[in-house]
Write a structure and sequence with these properties.
By secondary structure, the protein is an alpha/beta fold. It has helices at residues 37-43, 85-91, 110-123, 136-148, 162-170, 182-196, 209-213, 215-223, 240-254, 275-282, 308-317, 327-341, 347-350, 352-361, 383-386, and strands spanning 3-8, 14-15, 31-35, 81-83, 95-100, 128-132, 151-157, 174-178, 199-200, 231-235, 264-270, 321-325, 370-375. The chain has 15 helices and 13 strands. The strands form 3 sheets. The chain has a 6-stranded mixed sheet with strand order 4-5-13-10-11-12, with helices on both faces. A 4-stranded parallel sheet has the order 8-7-6-9, sandwiched between helices. The protein is globular. The N and C termini lie far apart (50 Å). The protein binds pyridoxal-5'-phosphate (PLP) and zinc ion (ZN).
């Protein structure tokens, strides 16, 4: 296929493709996959995409799997980009869309990343996959590992939504619930992985989840007929989807599919865990760990992200911003989006709506801007969050 090498996102050190890698051995930061895009574009042409399979593997030439037989799929990607006219009128913009990622296998966008990560793990011979997770990544890994015939070992905070725990158990994962946060779960995986023979598929600590997530950017461009929106609002934990989209835009420009104009990228976090918002406001390139992280939007409870500098670079380069909303605001928004548009959002996805309102109020989003909100998962998994609502 078209992968030439892997490259450290910070120090640019290069690594051989087609080997199992985690982070950069020199600086500890994420590795990104690089492609021969001139070669990719011989067969990958936007004019003929319409005839391809309706999942993320339609962008096969810019995905890392070499042998077709190693593709592990449950039908991920190619989710609808829904016009949200009623909501648009309520908030006061002309063009508002929801990219509805709840329609993925395992009901969240985590399916994209796990489809490519598990396919690559299979191709490169890993047998036991381990992950710390806020919930949805766990459900996705459990399902894709089962589909691939591999074993999965999952570490989640004890107060992860119950649905995530049950789905992992019912798809054959080995589940450990821990007192603490996702960072504590990550430390446990790191401590035990060598002895247990686990391959660590923590987000951005292996190079391929971001490749699956980047298809969000390819799809958005294709679904918007190659005219990207003005503003993308994205609920950010580890930031893999935002980093992936930013990478996709760069690749698509080099494929000759889009110009140099980029959407303003906006990170939304919960006030109880907003390390990227804080770093953005303080002008820092790396984010400090957020103390006492707490929010009902479990996917946003990520006090420290290894890809922090990649998120912050993308926000700044794009002229975007970072904004926090309260748990009350994001829970109320779930009902507002649900009742206005019929989409039962995950609380993380719903957080985009109060963020948009704040941006309009601050004059950072104009009536004429075309805005896309990312609903990253399904509200169905969060019964505890809505119990008191
Ligand atoms: C529903 C949902 N939205 C958003 C996120 C944050 O995703 P990312 O790590 O790509 O920032 C998560 C992560 O667990 C999630 O489950
Ligand atoms: Zn490095």
């Amino acid at each position: 296929m078209n992968v030439t090498h892997l490259e450290c996102a910070l120090c640019a050190l290069q690594y051989e493709a087609h080997r199992l890698h985690n982070v950069c051995t020199a600086c500890g930061k994420p590795l990104l996959v690089r492609y021969d895009l001139d070669r990719a574009k011989i067969t990958l042409r936007k004019e003929t995409l319409a005839t391809r399979r309706p999942d993320l593997w339609r962008y096969r030439e810019v995905l890392p799997v070499e042998d077709e037989d190693n593709i592990v799929s449950l039908g991920e990607g190619w989710t609808p980009l829904l016009r949200a006219n009623r909501l648009a009128r309520r908030v006061g913009v002309q063009d508002l869309f929801i990219k509805d990622e709840s329609q993925n296998p395992t009901q969240s966008f985590k399916a994209r990343g796990m489809a490519t990560a598990v396919s690559m793990a299979k191709e490169l011979g890993a047998k036991k996959l381990a992950v710390p997770s806020a919930g949805n990544a766990a459900g996705a890994l459990a399902a894709y590992a089962a589909r691939a015939g591999l074993k999965s070992f999952i570490f989640m905070p004890r107060d992860t939504p119950h649905a995530n725990v049950v789905e992992c158990e019912q798809t054959g994962a080995h589940v450990t619930l821990m007192d603490g946060l996702i960072t504590d779960c990550g430390a446990e995986v790191a401590r035990r992985k060598e002895k247990e023979g686990w391959f660590d598929v923590s987000t951005l600590k292996e190079p391929y989840r971001v490749e699956g997530k980047k298809t969000l950017g390819y799809e958005l461009a294709e679904q918007m007929e190659w005219r990207l929106p003005d503003v993308i609002i994205y609920p950010t934990g580890g930031g893999t989807g935002l980093i992936g989209m930013w990478k996709a835009f760069d690749e698509m420009e080099r494929l000759g599919w889009i110009g140099s104009k980029r959407p303003r990228m906006v990170t939304v976090q919960a006030e109880g865990c907003a390390p990227i918002v804080r770093a953005f406001e303080e002008g820092k390139r790396f984010a400090d760990e957020f103390p006492n992280a707490a929010t009902t939007a479990s996917g946003l409870r990520v006090p420290k992200a290894i890809g922090d500098f990649l998120i912050l670079d993308a926000l700044r380069e794009s002229g975007g911003t970072a904004i926090a909303v309260t748990d009350d605001e994001l829970i109320a928004a779930t009902r507002e989006i649900g009742a206005s548009e019929g989409v039962f959002c995950a609380p993380e996805g719903a957080a985009c709506l109060p963020a948009l309102r704040k941006l309009i109020e601050a004059g950072e989003v104009k009536t004429s801007d075309r805005v896309v909100l990312f609903n990253t998962g399904s509200g169905v998994k969060y019964m505890e969050s809505f119990a008191a609502d």
